[in-house]
Specification:
It is a single chain. This protein is α/β, with parallel strands linked by helices. It has a single domain, classed as TIM Barrel (Alpha-Beta Barrel), CATH 3.20.20. Helix content is about 40%, strand content about 10%. Strands 1, 2, 3, 4, 5 and 6 form a 6-stranded parallel sheet that branches. The protein has a 3-stranded parallel sheet with strand order 7-8-9. The longest helix is centred in the last third of the chain and has 19 residues, at about 315-335.
Length: about 325
Amino acid sequence: MDDYALGLHRDAVVIDTHCDTLKCLLPQFTGRRGSMWDDRSQIGMGERSALGHVDIPRLFEGGVDCQVFAISSARDRTPPYALRTALEMIDSFYAECERNRDKILPVTSHGGIMRAVEEGKVAAMLSIEGADVIEGRLGVLRVFHRLGVRMVGIVHSLRNLLADGVSDARTGGGLSELGVQVVEELDQLGVLIDVSHLSDAGFWDLMDVAKGPVMASHSNSRVICDHPRNMSDEMIEALADRGGVMGMNFAPAFVNPTSPTVETLIDHIDHIVDLVGPNHVGLGSDFDGIPSTPIGLEDVTKIQNITAELVKRNYLEEDIRKILGGNHLRLIKKVVG
């Protein structure tokens, strides 16, 4: 990596809008046969580890300024103990932030992110991946907001009480009445609404209901890689027209199943920028939620390879800064404050 690209990466505000690292801290996820989540409950996030993709030392090494940590339940149409599991994840999140308070700062706003940057800490924000965790109650959603959640994904691929996900797209279903109420409540609360994992019908329903810009925290281009978790050009254009941002997912199946590399990930960025300009794309790695990674993106320390490839492809410096985190900063400031 040349000095210019490295300097640019270190100077930019780098934001990753999705990782599943909190699952690595809970035995009910790591103890399952065939689990992709390494058991780091005894290690925590404060020590550099060879396990998984994300910990605090590696976030610093990779130059990541803000990491969004997802909370969720077991991926199931009727997940057991969904609310309890989410609360345990939040407890682990704040415990890790307290143990490592000299290095990481929990944040709930644009101002919090910038404060962390000024203090030389990693900003840590909470998201929900699959709103089954509210167990059908708007009051529980408001409690999650009080606990620091600032991004909410409606589903986690499987149908829940709010909507159909991509794994249930055969039904052609979109948002339920409860789903509409949740979207309206999120608008009122100033929480970013995340369309990743929604069925196509659910996406278009949500775009009809939501009043402000929305995000796709970890989704790619369906034209470049034809996978239902990726977004069609029409969906990308609709998201961009509302001022939204999509974070590039590093899962090989969503990047290029035959040749997953940092270069083929940037092919998605190229397409999106050609389609809607440089203001609507960012990073959403899905680290610690994917069983393998593209070559050149083996863990969070390698995120700087994205900057190097963007420089190689002659992107303007101002556009690289937008892609690395500026676009997400703008969206967070507008919606969350």
